[in-house]
Amino acid sequence: MTDRSVRDKGDSRGGRGRGAPRGGGGRGGGAKGGAKTIVEPHRHAGIFVARGKEDMLVTKNLSPGVSVYGEKRISVENSSGADDTVSKTEYRVWNPFRSKLAAGVLGGLDEIFIKPGAKVLYLGAASGTSVSHVADIVGPTGTVFAVEFSHRSGRDLINMATHRTNVIPIIEDARHPLKYRMLVSMVDVIFADVAQPDQARIVGLNAHLFLKVGGGVVVSIKANCIDSTAAPEAVFAREVTKLREERIKPLEQLTLEPFERDHAMVVGRYVRSTT
Amino acid sequence: MAAVDYLLHESAVGYAIFQVVHQADTIGNRLKEVQDAGQDLAKFGKMVKVVGFAPYRTAAEALENVNLVSEGVMSDYLRSELELNLPKPSKKKKIVLGVSDKTLAGSIKASFPGIECETGDTSEVVGDLLRGLRFHAGKLLVKLQEGDVDRAQLGLGHAYSRAKVKFSVQKNDNHIIQAIATLDHLDKAVNTFSMRVREWYGWHFPELVRIVSDNHTYAKLALAIGDKQTLTQDSLHDIAALVNDDGDLAQAVIDAARVSMGQAISDADMENVSAFANRVVKLAEYRKSLYQYLVDKMAIVAPNLATLIGEVVAARLISHAGSLTNLSKYPASTVQILGAEKALFRALKTKGNTPKYGLIYHSSFIGRAGAKNKGRISRFLANKCSIASRIDNFSEDPNTKFGEALRKQVEERLDFYATGTAPTKNEDAMRSAMDAVLGDIQIDDIPMTDAAPQSEKKEKKSKDKKDKDSKKDKKRRHSEVNGDEEAVEKKKKKKSKKESSSD
């Protein structure tokens, strides 16, 4: 094992700007002009696919007219048959190179538990780019509890949350869930993207306190952050065992290639009873 | 293990106390049926009964209580609520209260001797009951309306997080981090801009580059000279003033201007060149002032570390670690390779040799060591840096005494590698530094604490001894007054231990 205080920054530049152009400015005109694009619902409720020149993952914008991090927006007119009132629905493009959850969805996860009306505990919310999409998915009836430790990114997270009332920002260490227990109710799913060596433990702690029985756990694992010397597959296997010890029954595991290198997404179900 | 009688539920709306009516079984706790019962409101509602609910009256009160609960401190409001709703415990049977957090449990136990506390860690039954409460509390507390909890959570979440962001412990560190980053950018910018000035003005006066090689001086000269035709013998003094009063150099500039092969330049062009040169000069001046600012700031925030390895490297270390607190938590081995992560992880992956140094390479010590000893001195220096950062971070009012002592130790170690002169023993070096620090404190304190007049007739010999005694006395007194001194002392012990093991 490597020293915990040294982080492998060599090939990790955070989520931002690895492959994708910032703000998706590169593709001139592909997505614009809503007339050409058709938006269809994705297999997972709350997520949509925009079919234009190329297909894109989109979510319905909760606060129309506002981009959170400079992502593209697609407006679709939907004429409601009876009278000629044309209402517009706005969607935001969800970049799989920036969001691991989007990468997981594109990779074909069977079940992500995050659906309209769900309560989500989001560990490792960072600046709230992915969180904003999760908030779009769960919609006004759902809630996202977004936990982030860093003050710097927390600032952006709070700013994002002021425009989305279903996001509750919590600037606190996810290692100490008891510190924010007053702010969180029982949740349907925990999404964790914390990239810490003791990630499985963090997820377990939070699950024992806040996750409903039978609730979902979606964990993104970056092999390098846990053990940079071992083979990624071995690291993933070890993490899955650790999750199992935390009474999380693994359902599926998916690599995030080609969007992220040496990352895996593990989906599980929290089973509190033992039989 | 006693069964749990009452449960405390803290939420965003207030404190609620529930009585456990129907005791759950410890053994069958993980059975599916038991777990399912916890999910079912009808069944769970029969297991517990609300005995008290104290909603927060204002948003400010809510935030205050949430902050206290988060730290595991019992607020007065919670105390009164507990007093009101829990029955007076008899001598024989203590009341068992289920609480989520063990620190909060500790503070409750401290002020209510008749209450025993169980937490989710100590008893799984309590953990499950508390989970049930979190699940159903919105419905069990009949006073609440649908959505009350959600709204309270949202408001409180924002307030709590805002306060967290606002109250940052590492206020000063941030300025250092930004300053060093700006300094790096400025260096780059000043350099490229200076090159541009040389290039541009060079069309007019190509000989100047040969005479004045320094970028900053060049820009200043370009600004002062302007059109080279205007340069006469009269301006010798003005030119000399810009080149450190070097008369020969100034004369050379004037001579070169006379025979220059540069093109003539129009006024409009010259104006632009001058404007740019002016910017570059200003930028270079700003860089100097910023550097001074950094030096001053480091003298406040991390004087020992700055004394040991210099302000810039120290600032870079802090910047890399994120804050001085983070840096002081790092082991010396990490400090040693800080900034060389890429090389380190490559080495770990390929099982090659790990790097010997990262950022601390830029300190002068490593350059001065022989090739064979570079790794050794790097390790030694990293040890000292680690100690210095800890002293800086954890002492209330740090001075440079330890930094100087540590610096001297590194110098001696370098000397030892070069010539074989034995360095001072670590114990002695640290003791003298400690004495110096204590000596400073003593001077401050004499008028206040040393009220008892010392008899002047004492012999000199015994005075020496007495001095030592009083020093020790001071030490003790100080450690009682402020923990700071104690911390330093502890560190010292730690340090000597470390030294003896690493040497």
Automatic annotation (TrEMBL), chain A:
The record's subcellular location field reads: Nucleus, Nucleolus
Q: Where is this region: Disordered?
A: 1-37
- Lineage, top-rank taxon, reads Eukaryota
InterPro entries reported in the protein's UniProt record: Fibrillarin, SAM-dependent_MTases_sf
Q: Which reactions appear under catalytic activity for this entry?
A: L-glutaminyl-[histone H2A] + S-adenosyl-L-methionine = N(5)-methyl-L-glutaminyl-[histone H2A] + S-adenosyl-L-homocysteine + H(+)
**Record keywords, A-Z:** Methyltransferase, Nucleus, Ribonucleoprotein, RNA-binding, rRNA processing, S-adenosyl-L-methionine, Transferase
GO terms, molecular function: histone H2AQ104 methyltransferase activity; RNA binding; rRNA methyltransferase activity
Query: Could you say which residues form the signal peptide?
Result: none
UniProt entry tagged with the keyword rRNA processing: yes
Please tell me whether the keyword Chaperone is annotated for this protein: no
| Comp. bias regions, Basic and acidic residues | 1-14
Supply one GO CC term from the record. Answer: box C/D methylation guide snoRNP complex
Q: Which GO terms describe its biological process?
A: box C/D sno(s)RNA 3'-end processing; snoRNA guided rRNA 2'-O-methylation
Q: Where do Gly residues bias regions lie?
A: 17-33
Question: What NCBIfam families does this protein's entry cite?
Answer: PRK04266.1-2
Which HAMAP family does this UniProt record tie to the protein?
A: RNA_methyltransf_FlpA (MF_00351)
Q: Show the PANTHER family listed in the entry.
A: FIBRILLARIN (PTHR10335:SF17), RRNA 2-O-METHYLTRANSFERASE FIBRILLARIN (PTHR10335)
Give the similarity note.
Answer: Belongs to the methyltransferase superfamily. Fibrillarin family.
User: Any idea what this protein is called?
Assistant: rRNA 2'-O-methyltransferase fibrillarin
From TrEMBL, chain B:
- Spell out the subcellular localization from the entry: Nucleus, Nucleolus
> What's in the GO CC field?
box C/D methylation guide snoRNP complex; small-subunit processome
UniProt keyword Nucleus, yes or no: yes
Q: Extract the GO molecular function terms from the UniProt entry.
A: snoRNA binding
Q: Report if keyword Nucleus is assigned.
A: yes
User: What PROSITE patterns is this protein classified in?
Assistant: NOP
The alphabetized UniProt keywords are: Nucleus, Ribosome biogenesis
Which InterPro entries does the entry link to? Nop56/Nop58 (IPR045056), NOP58/56_N (IPR012974), Nop_C (IPR042239), Nop_dom (IPR002687), Nop_dom_sf (IPR036070), NOSIC (IPR012976)
Query: Looking at the record's lineage, which domain of life comes first?
Result: Eukaryota
Nop domain segment(s):
301-419
Describe the family membership recorded for this protein in Swiss-Prot or TrEMBL.
Answer: Belongs to the NOP5/NOP56 family.
Q: What does this protein do?
A: Required for 60S ribosomal subunit synthesis.
Protein name listed in UniProt: Nucleolar protein 56
Task: Report the source organism.
Answer: Lachnellula hyalina
Encoding gene, per UniProt annotation? nop56
